[in-house]
């Protein structure tokens, strides 16, 4: 494996591959969900949970398919971090989240996260999800890994604000997309889904095989 690819895998704070069936069950179905302004998170503070939910709907907005929060992605992420993450990673997420939303508040001029709207979050999110050069991305991931190694060893650690915000934005996008695709409705109604797989075609054009859609994880 190339060193850069290995670093990218190490840098992801969300180890979502170990999600349990119970946690994944949060994502199933496509019924109307409660207003997330009234949602009480298990892990995040209420204002951070509110901002998180809005951020997820910026990443995956409602179009001809449901939004992230309509698929309960915000509830899944909150429960997953609360039940699966070790304390060091929980603290890491909180630190990155604080720095990200401090930037949102500063740029928007809003006083509290409960006053923030999607249009206040979108510019900050876009800024930290912009395509970077390989060298810039590797340097940021190296910084994240060095920080986590120091924390795990009980030493002093510091992380640049921009790197922390980059890490939060990219990790949130990655787990949001993974969770969204893992929901029953999206897997069966939106993605390419074959409940009874037939012929195996090793090398076929995706537009021909699936109409350009990703394969469902339920395939």
Map the helices and strands.
Blueprint (H helix, E strand, L loop, with lengths): L2 H9 L9 H4 L21 H14 L13 H12 L2 H22 L9 H11 L5 H19 L8 H21 L2 H7 L15 H5 L9
Helix pairs in contact: 1-7, 3-6, 4-8, 5-6, 5-8, 7-8
Oligomer: single chain
| Low-pLDDT ranges | 1-17, 190-194, 209-216
The total of beta strands comes to 0
Integer-rounded radius of gyration = 18 Å
The largest pleated sheet is described as: none
Structural class, judged by helices and strands? mainly alpha
Could you tell me how far the N terminus lies from the C terminus, measured between alpha carbons in angstroms? 27 Å
SS strand fraction: under 5%
Helix proportion of residues, in percent? 55-70%
Q: What is the H/E string?
A: HHHHHHHHHH
Q: Number of helical runs?
A: 10
- Overall 3D form: globular
Average predicted local confidence, pLDDT: 77
Describe this structure in words.
With 219 residues, the protein is mainly alpha-helical. Helices cover 57% and strands 0% of the residues. The chain is built from ten helices and no strands. It has helices at residues 3-11, 21-24, 46-59, 73-84, 87-108, 118-128, 134-152, 161-181, 184-190, 206-210. The chain is globular and about 40 Å long. The two termini are 27 Å apart. Residues 1-17, 190-194 and 209-216 have low confidence and may be disordered.
Question: Summarize this, please?
Answer:
The chain has 219 residues and is mainly α. The chain has ten helices and no strands.
């Amino acid at each position: 494996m190339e060193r850069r690819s290995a670093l990218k895998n190490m840098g992801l704070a969300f180890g979502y591959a170990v999600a349990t069936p119970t946690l994944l069950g949060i994502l199933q179905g496509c019924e109307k969900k409660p207003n997330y302004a009234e949602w009480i998170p298990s892990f995040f503070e209420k204002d951070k949970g509110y901002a998180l939910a809005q951020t997820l709907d910026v990443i995956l907005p409602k179009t001809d398919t449901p939004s992230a929060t309509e698929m309960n992605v915000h509830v899944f992420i909150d429960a997953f971090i609360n039940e699966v993450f070790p304390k060091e990673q929980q603290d890491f997420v909180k630190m990155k989240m604080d720095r990200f939303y401090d930037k949102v508040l500063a740029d928007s001029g809003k006083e509290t996260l409960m006053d923030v709207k999607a249009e206040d979050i979108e510019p900050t999110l876009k800024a930290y999800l912009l395509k970077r050069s390989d060298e810039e991305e590797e340097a940021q991931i190296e910084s994240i890994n060095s920080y986590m190694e120091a924390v795990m060893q009980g030493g002093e650690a510091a992380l640049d604000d921009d790197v922390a915000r980059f890490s939060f934005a990219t990790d949130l996008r990655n787990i949001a997309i993974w969770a969204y695709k893992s929901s029953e409705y999206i897997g069966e109604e939106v993605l390419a889904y074959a409940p009874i797989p037939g012929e195996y075609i090793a090398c076929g054009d995706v537009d021909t095989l699936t109409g350009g859609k990703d394969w469902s994880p339920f395939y």
